[in-house]
Amino acid sequence: MQPRSRWIAPLGFLLFLLAAPYEAWAQEDTLNSGDTAWMLTASVLVLFMTIPGLSLFYAGLVRAKNVLSVMMQCFAITCMVTILWTLYAYGLAFGDGGALNAFVGMGNVMLSNIGVGTVSGTIPESVFQMFQLTFAIITPALIVGAFAERMKFSAMLWFMAIWLTIVYAPVAHWVWGGGWLGEMGVLDFAGGTVVHINAGIAALVLCIVLGKRRGYPETPMAPNSLVLTVVGASMLWVGWFGFNAGSQLAADGVAGMAMAVTHICTATAAFTWMVVEWVRHGKPSALGIATGAVAGLVAITPASGTVGPIGAILIGIASGVLCFFAATSLKRAMGYDDSLDVFGVHGVGGFVGAILTGVFTAEMFGGAGLDGGIGSQVVLQFIGAAATIVYSGVLTWIILKVLDGAIGLRVTADEEAEGLDLALHDERGFSL
Length: 432
Fold this sequence. Notes:
Elements: H1 8-28, H2 33-61, H3 67-94, E1 119-120, E2 123-124, H4 125-143, H5 153-176, H6 180-184, H7 192-210, H8 226-245, H9 253-281, H10 286-300, H11 309-334, H12 342-360, H13 374-406, H14 413-418, H15 420-425
Antiparallel strand pairs: 1-2
Helix pairs in contact: 2-3, 2-4, 2-8, 3-4, 3-5, 4-7, 5-7, 5-13, 7-12, 7-13, 8-9, 8-10, 9-10, 9-11, 10-11, 10-12, 11-12, 12-13
C-alpha cells in the first residue's frame, strides 16, 4: 500500500461523520412526497366537512323556509374567509409577531412569503396554509347553527369577518403559532380549544344577544329533513379523519392512531347518546345518534394525537352523556335559543375533550405520556379553555353590540315569518 493511500479510508470516514449532521439538518425541511400527498387529501377532507357536510347537517335541522339560508351562509363564509386568510389572517395566526408573538402573529400579507419551493416541515407551506385555512373556514361556520332562522345576511358577514380577525386568528396563534398557550404546554392537537370552545362560547353569546326565534319554544319548529341531517353528519364523520389525523402534518403512526381513536370515540359517543335518550324518552332517534356522533368528534379532537383507545372510549362516554344533557336539560333550564345546539355540542364537547386530554394522555391510560403528571396538565388544560372562553365571549359580545348599533342584527318580524330563503335570497329550497 502507498503511504498516502492508507489515509484515504480514514479520511473518507471522517468526512462522512462530519457531513452526516449537516445532511440530517438539511433534510429537516425537505419535501416528503408521502406526507404531502396525505396533507393534500386531509385538506380536501376538512373542506368537505363545511361544504357539503356542515351545510347539509344544518340545512336538515331548520324549517323548510330557511333551508337555503343556512347553506348560503356556510358557502359565503367559505368564500369570504378564504379571501381574508389570503390577504392577512394567515399571517395573524402563523406569522412571527416579534415582541407581540405571545399574542398574535404578523406579516405574510397576501401569502407573499410563500412560493412553489417554500417548505414547512416536510410539506409545502402552500399546503400547510391551505390545511389551516380549512380550519379557519369551519370554525365560524359552526356558529351559524346558533342564530339560524333570524340573523341578517349582511350582519352575519360583518360579524364573521371581524370575529375571524380579532378572535379566531389570535387564539389559533396562542395555541399553534408559537403563542403563550402553546409555550405553556396546553395540549390541543386538532382544535378542541381553538375551534370548538372558541366557536361554542361565541355561539352562546350570539344567540343570547340576538334573542329567541319568534314563537320559541311554544311553536313547534321541527327539522325539515332528518335525512339531510344524517347525511351531513355522516360526511362530517368521514371528513373529520382529515381534521384530526391531518393535524399530525405527516403520514405516520401518530396520524394512524389519531384516525383510529377518532373513529372509536365517535362511535362510542353516538351509541351512548342513543342509549341515554332511549332510557329517558322511551325511543332512540336518528337525530340523537347523529348529534351524539358529532359530540364525540368534537370531544376527541384535542386529544386525538396523544390518547389511545382506552382514552377514546372513556371520552366518548363522557361526551355522549354530558353533551346530551347540555343540549336538552341545560338549554331548557337556562332558556336560551341556540337553534341547532352549537354550544351544547361544540362548546361543552370541546371543553370536556380539552380537560380529559390532560387525563387520558397519561401513559397509564395508554396515551403518549405527560411531562408533569395528570394534575398539572389538567390545570394547564383548564387555563387554556378558560382563557378562550373569556376572550371569545367578551370580544363576541363587543362585536355584536357594535354591529347591532350600526346596522342591526335581526331580520324583521315579517321576514322571519316569511322565511329567510325568500326574504333574503328570493329563492326557495324546495318547490314541491
